[in-house]
Amino acid sequence: MKTTLLSTTCLFNEVSSIFREKGLSEAEREAELIICHAFNISRTEFYRDDLWVDESDLWALNSIVRRRLCHEPLQYLTGYTEFYGLRFRVGRGVLIPRPETEILVEEAVRLVNALGIPSPAILDLCTGSGCIATAIAKNLPSAKVVASDISVPAMGYAIDNAGLNSAGNLVFVQGDLFEPVRGKSFHLIVSNPPYVTGDDLMSLQKEVSGYEPPEALDGGRDGLDFYRRILKAAPQHLRDRGCLVLELGLGQGIAVREIAGECGLRVVKVLNDLSGIERVMVLEKLNKSSDKRLLEAI
Ligand SMILES: C[S@@+](CC[C@H](N)C(=O)[O-])C[C@H]1O[C@@H](n2cnc3c(N)ncnc32)[C@H](O)[C@@H]1O
Q1: What is the extent of the structural domain holding 238?
Q2: Distances (CA, A) of 270 to 12, 107, 197, 218
Q3: CA 246, 252, 256: angle at the middle one, nearest 5?
Q4: Is there a single domain that holds both residue 43 and residue 172?
Q5: Residue 165: inside a domain, yes or no?
């Protein structure tokens, strides 16, 4: 039987032109990643050799291209994403880590190093894929990290990702916010909770609203439900000199500051992302006996 051979360059031109016509903003980059994934070749191989593919082997590529044209996120199609220089497995049922969340990790690592705690106990609430917990555990090898999430599928990805990145100083517990760590306290609590408002949920990109888990996004009517719950319970789970590092949604800084004040927490600083949006808030537990501002030196 006669078979037709197609070159990867020719397939790249065809896929990127379909993506361009359909308005995908990164048509070339996506086409390259999808071809490499479909034929299990590295970027180097893709650019070095024009490989020949049997037409009968195109089914995997066709299926991925079709799914992408239905707005399924690229990361779900390839099954992986990069975060803080590490590789994470992702798919339906777990939020894809976002680049701005790296600011939270960087600040948490910097804070623990600055405080000089020899074996810090760290809690990551709403861990999802485990990206924050794994990146912190890898960068603070002396830390003991606990990560929790209510979602059973997310927990599966998080456990895989800790293994994939050989993060041994990390355990996962499943349940509602602090419920799985009742009675335990930490030097540092970090979280990127669901924070999308009811109105914004209606206007998300199709890639997000159609595919990513709603429970990872929905922060209640005003987007602040999780901040209220986390900030209220945090003081009883923070040790002396304990800190909290939270990711914020667009325009939530003022409201979260107010909630923090009512909960015995002081805002130490707020970090902006590249778009100038207040993205990460660092808070400290007020020390009642001395009211000493513990992080002033940092
Ligand atoms: C915005 S995602 C963050 C995931 C991950 N930390 C990241 O930064 O990519 C929020 C996560 O909160 C989890 N979640 C939602 N409700 C929760 C609850 N009541 N208790 C614990 N986790 C919850 C979701 O399953 C989801 O994984």
Answers
A1: 81-285
A2: 43, 10, 21, 23
A3: 60
A4: no
A5: yes
Closest CA to 246 of 19, 229, 146: 229
Structural tokens at position 250: 């667009």
Residue partners of 279: CB distance under 8 A and separation at least 6:
100, 103, 104, 247, 248, 271, 272, 273
How many A from CA of 188 to the centre of ligand 1? 18
Residue 30, Cα to own-chain centre: how many angstroms? 20
Q: How far is the CA of 218 from the centre of ligand 1 (A)?
A: 10
291 assigned to some structural domain? no
In this structure, the answer to whether residues 106 and 247 fall within a common structural domain is yes
Q: For the segment 241-269, what is each residue's pLDDT rounded down to a tens digit?
A: 899 999 999 999 999 999 999 999 999 99
Number of domains in the chain: 2
* Site to substitute for ligand 1 among 94, 107, 149, 245, most atoms within 8 A of C-beta: 149
Report the C-alpha gap between 44 and 204 in whole angstroms. 35
Both 174 and 251 in one domain: the answer is yes
In 3D space, the residue among 78, 70, 73, 77 whose CA is nearest the CA of residue 98 turns out to be 73
Mutate which of 92, 126, 157 for ligand 1 pocket (most atoms within 8 A of beta carbon): 126
Residues 265 and 118 occupy one common structural domain? yes
Q: How far apart, in whole angstroms, are the C-alpha atoms of residue 170 and residue 158?
A: 10
pLDDT per residue over 140-199, tens digit each?
999 999 999 999 999 999 999 999 999 999 999 999 999 999 999 999 999 999 999 999
Which of 106, 148, 215, 280 to probe ligand 1 with, by most ligand atoms within 8 A of CB?
A: 215
Same domain, 25 and 112: no
Asked if residue 269 is part of any domain, the answer here is: yes
